[in-house]
Amino acid sequence: MSCWDTIADYGLRSLGIGERLLPREGFTLCQQVTLIGSGMLWNIYFGICALTSGFCLATAVAMGKASNNRVLRKLSEWFIFIFRGSPLFIQFFFAYFLFLSLKQATGMFTAFSSAWAGALVVLFLNTAAYSGEIFYGALLSVPKGDVEAADAYGMSGWPRFRRIVWPTMLRLAWPAYTNEAIFLFHATTLVFFSGFPALQQKGDALYYASYFADKTFNPFVPYPILAGYFILLTLVIVGIFGLINRHLNRHLPQDARPKLRVRPNLLR
Amino acid sequence: MQWFACYLTTGKHMGFYVSFGTVLLLLAITAPTALAFGFAAAGAARSAVAPLRWIGKAYIAIVRGVPDIAFFLFFVIALDQAFEWMRHKVKCADWDQPIRQGNDFVVCAAAKLPLGNSPQWMHETYGFFLAVLTFSIVFGAFAGNVLFGAMRAVPHAQLETAAAYGMSRRQVFWRILVPQMWVFALPGLSNLWMVLIKATPLLFLLGVEDIVYWARELGGAKTPRFTDYPHGDWRMWYFLALLIFYLAFTRVSEVVLGRLMARLTHGQATTGGEAQRKAAT
């Protein structure tokens, strides 16, 4: 069997398309690369969906934490503390069993006890809390003069936020937010190790990597493959975020533009 | 009420409480070990000997670039096999079969770790030891990065002055650089401590019977046939308890580290020290 056949059989295995049985013996390098790559689809799905939805909530949370309204501020602070102060791993477990109990009690929430929705909710809230804190820090360091100038032009409320405060906040927060994005993609590997079942062995990259490591008793092939995929993914993220960074800073003189300095990555 | 008092003091629950101790023990051992690893790495990365410098820098760079959970899964098997391989080479020199037979990793019986006939607690301790080593290696790289940065943050003039006084490189390192770097390292290290706390549930993946294991075990639905205390699926509540445990632990650490930082910045020529001085007057 050539490598092309393997790719045709297992390329979309993580979505349930293609060969049903995973390889059981005579593991070739091609099979490992293909299956682990196929699992990466889930990591990318979780990462992109959580990042885009989390971005909106993070802005709201940052605004809440900086607001004068006591209730809003306390709410945002607690939200950030709860999701940043506890391990993501435990959050996954708790959410899974919570959704399971809700499903039994009410009959609803069926979708949430499977990974594609349930884990996504946890990742969404988690990244919202982490990036909310980043945005809050940036919001505090928006230059006073910018806001005063906006006031002098007669802007206030929504237009001022939309046209002055928000873009500056994003610009200042962007390097830290890039790290958060990389970090989030790395965190997606936890999903299938924390309660959420991989139905019909449709798992993510780490799930397949540990499958191969278990079967072959040889961690020196699948994990470096996984590492390679993640390094590629990280490079892509850095590239895309770098482009956005350039767009956000396009009004600044060349030498005043902040460089993206990537410093991944601690686990959460 | 009575029922709960009995339920929460069964033998299995005692095991659950002990596992909290396991987590704390892991933290207590790992934190100094990781710091030592990191210190060695940072020292090596600054070394004048080129190969040593490459090793230090490569160690810091590699561990930081890859998802950590992959490292946790990788190191446990790899370390286990490395130990067994070394013992195999020493103890069974006349073994003629290859060690890697296809998909199997075969060593002679005397080289097995722990020995096949050793008691259960040996197996558990060995697993715990592997976990500590893995955590130390991974967090050692993070700590190495923080300390490397802190060493560069120490004003260069200090080092030049020391050299001008005729100190050797070694003396400059130990007498000038190391005592001064801790203030710069503390914010990074306290961040690392928080991350380390949050990494402890990964013990579960390494096969140690930690709090996650017990929470799953105890919370599952129980029928009257197997236990005196039947109940439904309570895993949700057990994990809620773990969540609260971690939140409380994080909160306490935040307060303690805040005080430590305030004490260390006292009298330092940094913005923090200056702010303290202004607040006092």
UniProtKB/TrEMBL annotation, chain A:
It holds the Pfam family BPD_transp_1. Residues 40-244 form the ABC transmembrane type-1 domain. GO terms for biological process: amino acid transport. The keyword Ion transport does not apply. It is a multi-pass membrane protein. It is found in: Cell inner membrane; Cell membrane. PANTHER family: L-CYSTINE TRANSPORT SYSTEM PERMEASE PROTEIN TCYL (PTHR30614:SF0), MEMBRANE COMPONENT OF AMINO ACID ABC TRANSPORTER (PTHR30614). This is Amino acid ABC transporter membrane protein 2, PAAT family.
From TrEMBL, chain B:
GO terms for biological process: transmembrane transport. Gene3D superfamilies: MetI-like. The keyword Transport applies. It comes from the Bacteria. Residues 20-257 form the ABC transmembrane type-1 domain. It is a multi-pass membrane protein. Pfam families: BPD_transp_1. It is found in: Cell membrane. The keyword Membrane applies. The chain crosses the membrane at residues 20-46, 58-79, 126-151, 172-196, 236-257. One of its GO terms (cellular component) is plasma membrane. Keywords: Membrane, Transmembrane, Transmembrane helix, Transport. Belongs to the binding-protein-dependent transport system permease family. This is Amino acid ABC transporter membrane protein 1, PAAT family.
